[in-house]
Amino acid sequence: MKTKTGLLLELWQEARTRFSNQLANLLEEDLKKKLLPSPNSIGFLIRHIGDVELLFAKNVFGASQTRVTAKTVIAKKDTGEWTSHNELIDYVNHSFEVLQSIVEKQEDSDWETNIETKEFGIKTKAEAFGRIISHTTYHAGQLAIINKYGVI
Question: What domains are there in the chain, each with its CATH number?
Answer without folding.
Answer: 4-149 (1.20.120.450)
